[in-house]
Design a protein that fits this description.
The complex is a heterodimer of chains A (418) and B (188).
Chain A: H1 2-40, H2 69-79, H3 90-106, E1 117-119, E2 122-124, H4 134-142, H5 145-155, H6 159-182, H7 184-190, H8 195-205, E3 213-214, E4 217-218, H9 223-246, H10 258-261, H11 271-296, H12 307-312, H13 321-344, H14 352-379, H15 385-410
Antiparallel strand pairs in A: 1-2, 3-4
Helix pairs in contact in A: 1-11, 1-13, 2-11, 3-5, 3-11, 5-6, 6-9, 6-14, 7-14, 9-11, 9-14, 11-13, 14-15
Chain B: H1 13-17, H2 19-37, E1 75-77, H3 92-96, E2 102-108, E3 120-128, H4 137-141, E4 147-149, E5 164-165, H5 167-174
Antiparallel strand pairs in B: 1-4, 2-3, 3-5
The chains are: A mainly alpha (418), B alpha+beta (188).
Bound molecules: iron/sulfur cluster (SF4) (2 copies).
Chain lengths: 418, 188
Amino acid sequence: MPDLIQIAIILVKIVALTFLVVLPLVPISVYFERRFSAVIQDRVGPNRVGIPLSLFGFKKDFHFFGLIQPMADGLKLFLKEDFTPAHVRKTFYWLAPVLTVAPALITVCVIPFGSPITIFGHTEKLVIADLDIGPLFVFAVSSLTVYGITLAGWSSNSKFPFIGGVRSTAQMISYEIALGLSIIPVLMFFGELNLGKIVQYQADNGWLLLPLWKNGHFSLPDPQTALFWIPAAISFVIFTISIFAETNRMPFDLPECETELVGGYHTEYSSMKFALFFMGEYAAMVIGSALIVTLFLGGWSVGFTADKWIQGLHIGGFHFGGLIHLTAFVGKLVVFILFFILVRWTVPRFRYDQLMKLGWVIFFEAALINVFLAALILAAPHLTIAILGIGTVLLVVVTAAVIWVAKVSEESPKILRA
Amino acid sequence: MAVIKLQRPKLNFGEKIYFGALIKGFFLTMTHAVKSLRGKSAGADSLASSGLGVTMQFPEQRWDEHLPEYYRGAPTLVTDEQGRERCVSCQLCEFICPPKAIKITPGEIPSDDPWAKVEKRPKEFDIDMIRCIYCGMCEEVCPEQAIFLRKDYLITGLKRADMVHDKDKLYQIGGVRTGLVNKWNELK
Ligand code: SF4
Ligand code: SF4
């Protein structure tokens, strides 16, 4: 019997967190994408779709600032003809859209959405699967999306999608490395791979990028934490940019760049299959931002020493602080999604060689050096001055060498014959 | 042909790092966003914006009073000051119309009509507004100054048939124009 209750609770959590929190964020981010881009470009954007009350004889329509637009778009995509070209490889062609969406949604399960809530003396964590390998799980599963895109490109059996698929593979592989390496300092700092505990630590001791309180009291960070801010910031920059590349967002959306590849890997797709790709991209964006928020910006914690108090709030036996934290988390998520969108409409698309160079020559090395820097800072209290000095010198030498190599590799090759 | 070798500009360190340009870009886009939210975008006034960006929100706000003198809207037929149909169904407009939007069935004016001396007028005159490209050729070619492009631009219909303007509709939009052609007047 208790097993059944456990399963029921997990099911409720899956439905509530995936279908009521993450999936609605997809249309919302589509809406924000359109409205925000419009505002940036001095336009209005979709602001009409709503309840057409005037059809039923009322004076005014209800249009909620056009918030229903994404649903209308979805409906349109549903009603469109689902066309399968004759020349595609059917099985993989059908499999590909699923393979892009499913991993993105599976990764939801390790994201902690809020602090635990207590009902009738029963404490429940607001995370579907409280895994002890959170970030690793996310990387393992989310890197599967590349199969969806590659299969889509290949099975479409036409040139542009194929190029898109190949590009996406190369891009994912290059950035996966920087992505993985860049969070190693973070994990070393927390000494923990459980995302829930990482967030709890940040709630108590200050966010990774904002270490302004300790054990629930405002205080300046100790020298070690303060110094660690540098590798943390470098990690943050590399991780964020790699997430952009992973999710195929604008400065790196070469797999689907319209100007060169028509539509990229989804050129041959129509109707709901196309919508699934679209959804997969936005879901990946939501998950990516969720991961960044969780690791660097305190996850669900409201911060500024208010978390203990919020966790203690209760009506009778119902501790509802977790719900406030859930709201805070979603708020942070939306802000970060807005940042994603701002970047998309600000930064022009990179050239393919620039993209590869950025991944392999700059971020890979930077992330690697960053790991050593972080290690040095974390180990400093246990080391003698001499070893510390040697370590620092070594680090500086290695950095200089890497910069030199990057510089040399940039020089154009000498022309042998005129 | 002379070969011009383009020299790529040498980038300095700051430009190579690229972050400065990114930050500048964010400032640029955010200034646009804030300005357009406050309705202060460049050109918002002269474009009669709705208060968000420079866009005028169409069905509620119209550009009508700003339409220039030479605006080319729907082609229409006009009557003269004595209520005579000016068109003599010479069919020149039908022949010149590039997309073949005009279809004219010429008719005779009966001898007991006060305007019998004009001899011809259109029995039917259809302009298919789906085909019309608002080029104004018909207006230019008409020897009788009978067809004019008016400022009507909201031409809608639920079926193709709705989009064909027949003679009544054309005269209704066109109205009366005075002057210019006086050769059919009583006095002459
Ligand atoms: S509108 Fe003018 S050009 Fe056309 S048939 Fe009539 S008189 Fe001729
Ligand atoms: S405006 Fe041009 S296209 Fe339209 S009816 Fe006249 S000649 Fe034909």
